[in-house]
Specification:
The complex is a heterodimer. Chain A is about 35% helix and about 25% strand. Chain A is an alpha/beta fold. The longest helix of chain A is centred in the last third of the chain and has 16 residues, at about 170-185. A 6-stranded mixed beta sheet of chain A has the order 6-7-8-3-9-10, sandwiched between helices. In chain A, strands 2-1-4-5 form a 4-stranded antiparallel beta sheet, with helices on one face. The model of chain A has no long low-confidence stretch (mean pLDDT about 80). Chain A is built from 10 helices and 10 strands. Chain A has helices at about 45-50, 75-80, 100-105, 115-125, 125-130, 140-155, 170-185, 200-205, 225-230, 230-235, and strands spanning about 5-15, 20-30, 35, 60-65, 70, 85, 160-165, 190-195, 210-215, 215-220. Chain B is about 75% helix and about 5% strand. Chain B has helices at about 1-30, 40-55, 60-90, 95-115, 140-165, 165-175, 175-180, 185-210, 220-235, 240-260, 265-280; strands at about 130-135, 135-140. In chain B, about 45% of the residues are buried. Classes of the chains: A alpha/beta, B mainly alpha. The interface of A and B includes residues 85, 94, 101 and 108 of A.
């Protein structure tokens, strides 16, 4: 099957000399959920921003193909209008605008008759947004803001939905709600690429996962494989297994398989 | 009491001109974080276009329309041809402000070269001498026109910003540029439109001010500075604040000029501004500078 998004050995640099992405390649298949895991500073957010075109003149090298067309170094507006919707970590809401206005902006550039139906769909997905529709979005709680961002992203009819840490700063119960909505969105036929620190939740709904470290992909596999991997278990899932000492520390550093 | 009303009415008329100037400055500051030092000169250029067209015998409506368009066009061209390339090369906020200063100087000398430096009377359909007596308060036809025009312009502008899709996109772009880009909003064109709108509001003020003063290349300098002060008084990033600030400044000036001495006209107005900024540094209607972390 032809991949929806194909990234071939891209290099992204900050200030022209600091490598954030170091010859990274990956493929995203249609209608599946992909999770990118990794520690802080691995370049996960940079990867999403590079795809969305938000980093000027980046990637320096390599190509990004979306549905067979090269999209690297295009303007963010162009990339967004092709159907790649990026939900940043800070959620990118228009804080002074009301919930309804935020949602209306999600429909920017759409003229089809399905807007009403899609509005109904997102209100059904997140009923709280309907109750809050006249409120300024900065008055919403963190979870509600995340829901609003996802609802707004859905209204853009994304072919590829990119989420940066959807569970960041949310109470476990709320993040479960957010993940429930995500799997519904995925079932409705949207491809999702997400970056997440909470590996357990991410691998719970993902079909395929990548592990990044210092600008490279060091491990990839489908969700079950990753969950079964010893290093992933130890580093991300908190299942120490037998290698961890009962006192919580050990005197040697275990070599990773990557 | 009649005196007070008389001063207040006069103050409202000048205040509404300041308000129009301040509105344009605040609009540009809000959407691009740039203080537009060329605002007054764009306005002057627009007024001179009208003056030249009236000179060759065009009717008022046509000449004024052309003046508004030419002002807007200068601002839009400046945005696309100077600011956008500068931003592409990662110019800082400060250097972009200096660029507007440069535009102002260029326009000033162009106007002086083509329009002449001599102060000239500006023909206008409303008269400064024709006056109406409303219950003891005298108001000139021109002042009435200024009040009406400013009210209409701000009302239309309010409807544009608050009630239309274009206005929604303007608000979104000015609040969160990267997010607006990822929504697929054509932010460059929206910002260019904001520059054009700001210049247009300024030219309206200039056209009504020109018959009150004499037309020369520097006639907008003082109103521009007052508009600037008014915008800061109201809160630089607030559009309603610009209007409120302009009106307060105008009335304060008129009252000080009337009751104390004409020499204190500017002094008292700026004393008020200092006092307000001491209590509310963000301006009357400005948003407090808080960053949630």
């Amino acid at each position: 099957m032809k991949p929806l998004l194909k990234i071939t050995s891209i290099e992204t640099l900050y200030y022209d000399r600091i490598y954030a992405l170091h010859g990274l390649s990956l493929e995203i298949q249609e209608k599946e959920v992909f999770a990118v895991l990794g520690p802080n500073g691995a370049g996960k957010t940079t990867l999403l921003k590079t795809i969305a075109g938000l980093l000027k003149d980046q990637p320096k090298k390599g190509t990004i193909q979306f549905e067979g067309k090269g999209i690297h170094r295009l303007a963010p507006e162009r990339i967004s209008s092709m159907g790649i919707v990026y939900v940043p970590e800070d959620r990118g809401l228009f804080r002074e605008l009301t919930v309804r206005e935020n949602l209306e902006l999600g429909c920017w550039g759409r003229k089809d008759a399905c807007i009403q139906r899609d509005m109904a769909f997102v209100y059904e997905l997140f009923p709280i947004l309907k109750a809050r529709s006249g409120q300024q979005s900065e008055t919403l709680s963190g979870g509600e803001q995340q829901m609003l961002t996802m609802a707004r992203a859905m209204l853009r009819q994304p072919k590829l939905l990119m989420l940066d840490e959807p569970s960041l700063g949310l109470a476990p119960k709320i993040s479960q709600q957010v993940y429930g909505a995500l799997s519904q969105i995925s079932k409705a036929g949207t491809t999702i690429l997400m970056v997440e620190q909470n590996a357990k939740m991410a691998l719970g709904i993902a079909t395929f996962g990548y592990v990044m470290e210092s600008g490279r992909i060091v491990l990839e596999g489908n969700a079950e494989e990753l969950q079964a991997n010893e290093d992933v278990q130890e580093l991300y899932l908190g299942l120490g297994g037998e290698t961890a000492s009962p006192k919580g520390w050990r005197l040697y550093k275990k070599r990773r398989t990557w | 009491m009649t005196n007070f009303l008389q001063y207040a009415v006069g103050g409202f008329a000048t205040g509404s001109i300041y308000a129009l100037v301040a509105l344009g400055l605040a609009l540009i500051y809000r959407s691009t974080r740039i203080l537009n030092f060329a605002h007054g000169d764009i306005t002057t250029a627009g007024a001179f276009v009208a003056f030249a067209l009236l000179g060759i015998g065009l009717p008022f409506a046509l000449a004024f329309g052309a003046a508004l368009l030419s002002g807007a066009l200068i601002a839009i061209l400046f945005y696309f041809c100077v600011l956008v390339p500068a931003q592409r090369r990662e110019a800082t906020q400060l250097s972009q402000i200096i660029l507007t200063l440069g535009l102002g100087l260029i326009l000033q000398s162009l106007v002086a070269y083509f329009g002449g430096k001599e102060p000239q009377p500006f023909p206008f359909p409303l008269s400064d001498i024709e006056i109406y007596d409303v219950g003891g308060v005298v108001i000139s036809q021109l002042s009435l026109g200024i009040l009406g025009a400013a009210l209409l312009a701000s009302l239309l502008f309010y409807l544009l910003v608050q009630k239309t899709r274009l206005g929604l996109a303007m608000r979104a772009t000015s609040e969160n540029l990267p997010a607006a880009q990822t929504m697929g909003i054509p932010t460059r064109r929206i910002l260019a439109f904001s520059w054009g709108m700001a210049a247009l509001l300024g030219v309206i003020a200039g056209l009504f001010l020109a018959p009150l003063l004499l037309l020369d290349p520097f006639f907008m300098l003082e109103p521009f500075l007052k508009g600037f002060a008014a915008a800061i008084l109201g809160g630089l990033n607030s559009l309603p604040g610009a209007i409120v600030g302009g009106l307060i400044l105008g009335v304060a000036e008129a009252l000080a000029g009337g009751y104390i001495s004409i020499a204190f006209k500017n002094t008292l107005a700026f004393l008020i501004i200092i006092a307000v900024l001491l209590v509310r540094p963000e301006g009357l209607l400005g948003k407090e500078f808080v960053e949630r972390v």
